[in-house]
Specification:
alpha+beta; D-amino Acid Aminotransferase, Chain A, domain 1; about 40% helix
Length: about 400
């Protein structure tokens, strides 16, 4: 059965390849081999034969989605600067805008053969965002009727999303969709900032807070903006040049502390560098911005790292797994089944605690289980030695 499925996938991949000039720089044999090796994967439930690129391959970035006459590029990774004064001068030679960087997860909304689908950064169909976009982007069908070859890049953020537990402090319940970029799929380019802003205003799409334009010499104004974001508990800024240039990002002290708070109990699931990088950002950011290294900060840092550890270690000692609790609401019951299938495909272990209908939504509570973090702490509690 698997061999039959693979042969079908190869035939569909070839059909896509033959109608896609942008793939001709890659020999089909290499694409076929990548499919056999799991570097390119068939997407279930798309309604049309489609594939996603699992990891960067021959010029195709991870998260790229391929279908007949359809090419959605993977969303690029944005480099981070650690010091504003030196980083901005290095990368920004002309005017640029500062867009709020929002704590959530990234999806690309597209018109996929008549259906509006949300694709995650890794190229999965996101059942949650696909289910919920009508609540937040009601003009989306009109937008795609006029611009069928555009893709909207959105941050889905709020306390009731199924993937991340950090969110902007001004979203008190549910989630929100923030459109931060527009991709012209035919020309394979991001719309420049001012063209994008005008289009998003016209359709009434919510965006991150936008400031500017600035020049690299206006670093003091940007420091004030970052300090305000830090005080308000926001994540940071993304700097986008008006003309040619590199998009770069910068995050607040509050964001780094939030990452440490969420990540440290689950350290067995992460590389240790994840923790180290955020400590480095904290040190450099507070130093450059003149934020104090005082008892209040040390208390906040200690709380971020160790505030939940008694609870975590007590759970592990009691033979219970390390877990996170999520609560979401969905418009359609079948979207829950699709979400559970997505977690299975992504090899994420889920335990459903509660499902109930409230008004027009299905409200779901579930736990995300972290087996490697559980083993990490359990091995140490049980006395296993480790060579440092």
């Amino acid at each position: 059965m698997f061999e039959l499925d693979l042969e079908y996938q190869k035939r569909e991949l070839r059909r896509i390849y033959e109608g896609a000039p942008f793939l001709r720089k890659i020999r089909f044999g290499l694409l076929e081999k990548a499919l056999e090796e799991g570097k390119i994967l068939f997407i279930e439930g798309a309604g049309q034969p489609a594939f996603r690129v699992k990891r960067d391959f021959k010029g195709l970035s991870a998260g790229t989605v391929l279908a007949k006459d359809f090419f959605l590029p993977g969303f690029p990774h944005i480099p981070r600067i650690f010091c504003l004064k030196t980083g901005l001068v290095r990368y920004m030679s002309g005017p640029f805008y500062a867009e709020e960087k929002i704590e959530g997860y990234n999806v690309r909304l597209v018109n996929f053969f008549g259906s509006i689908l949300a694709f995650t950064r890794r190229g999965y169909i996101c059942p949650f965002a696909t289910d919920r976009w009508p609540d937040f982007l009601p003009a989306l069908p009109t937008f795609f009727a006029e611009y069928p070859d555009y893709a909207l890049c959105c941050e889905v953020a709020g306390p009731e999303n199924p993937f991340v537990t950090e969110y902007p402090p001004y979203i008190k319940e549910d989630v929100a969709f923030f459109v931060f970029d527009v991709i012209d799929l035919k020309r394979q380019r991001f719309l420049p900032p001012e063209e994008k802003y005008a289009l998003l205003r016209r359709f009434g799409f919510r965006t991150p807070e936008i400031s500017g334009p600035f020049w690299a010499s206006e670093v003091e104004a940007l420091k004030e903006l970052i300090l305000r974001y830090d005080q308000e508990g926001r994540e940071g800024l993304v700097f986008k040049p008006v003309g040619k240039g590199r998009v770069i990002k910068y995050v607040t002290s509050a964001s780094n502390l939030g990452d440490l708070r969420v990540a440290f109990p689950f350290i067995g699931e992460l590389e240790a560098s994840y923790i180290v990088h955020r400590l480095v950002r904290l040190a450099l950011g507070r130093w450059e911005l003149g934020q104090p290294f005082d008892e209040s900060f040390y208390k906040d840092l200690g709380q971020a790292l160790f505030g939940e550890m008694n609870i975590i270690l007590d759970r592990v000692k009691a033979k219970k797994p390390v877990e996170e609790i999520f609560r979401i609401r969905l418009r359609r019951e079948e979207s829950l089944e699709a979400l559970l299938a997505h977690f299975r495909a992504a090899r994420v272990r889920i335990e459903i605690h509660k499902v109930e209908k409230k008004g027009r939504y299905w409200c779901v509570e579930f736990a995300k289980i972290y087996p490697r973090a559980t083993s990490f702490w359990a091995n140490k509690i049980e006395g296993l030695a480790q060579i440092d």
